[in-house]
Amino acid sequence: MEHSERPTTDPATTAGAAHSLAELDDRVTGCRACPRLVAWRESVAADPRAAFRGQDYWARPVPGFGDPRAAVAVVGLAPAAHGANRTGRMFTGDRSGDFLFAALHRTGYADSPTSTDRDDGTTLTGIRLTAPVRCAPPQNRPTPAERARCAPYLARELELLAPTLRVVVTLGAIGWNATLSFLATSGRAVPRPRPPFAHGAELFLPRDTGRPPLTVLGCYHVSPHNTFTGRLTEEMLDDVLRRAGEVAATGG
């Protein structure tokens, strides 16, 4: 069983030892800490969908992507099996990514409305995309143990972004809760009980010793379930991203 297998990597150790985002990204891509996720991501690559046969799948943990001096971070859930697990870039190669990148382009963060591959030349300005789980999980459902094991990577990423980071946009409840857990652990004055996730939720954390103010914004996830049903529209996502830009520009 996954829970009884001994991890082959310790994210808490490897993440904490990273002194830059580039070093952290390198450590993320070499992680094999969760046997169930390692087996799944590699089995997907070995038997891809017909539309992707012949393509060389990334089939490794996916690092964050974007501006290393970002004022805004977007925190999702996990790579998609035939999306980022295939392309090697967060929110790239699937419908969720298509929806997000189009919005990033409309709101001025991306130089292209599409992102198809980690080598397509797309660049982001002022924003970085990341997730609390770095491997594609079966049925898009990482276990609580897998989320906890992977958490140090997001924590260290947000620490390294801290000098410029002013806003975290969380896509869905898992991103919201993972972000608030890190902030509380790092000593930020997160309210207790913690505010629940909601689309449009906004939590302002004031400046503390050595750290600038930070605002956490809630947004429905860009999953096809939400976008196809109209639960999350283009206008709703654009509003959140524009709000993030406003807060980042004014410092809250």
From TrEMBL:
Family assignment from sequence similarity: Belongs to the uracil-DNA glycosylase (UDG) superfamily. Type 5 (UDGb) family.
Uracil-DNA glycosylase-like domain location: 63-241
CDD domains in the record: UDG-F5_TTUDGB_like (cd10031)
Keywords carried by this UniProt record: 4Fe-4S, DNA damage, DNA repair, Hydrolase, Iron, Iron-sulfur, Metal-binding
Native source species: Isoptericola chiayiensis
A UniProt-annotated Pfam family: UDG
Entry protein name: Type-5 uracil-DNA glycosylase
Domain of life of the source: Bacteria
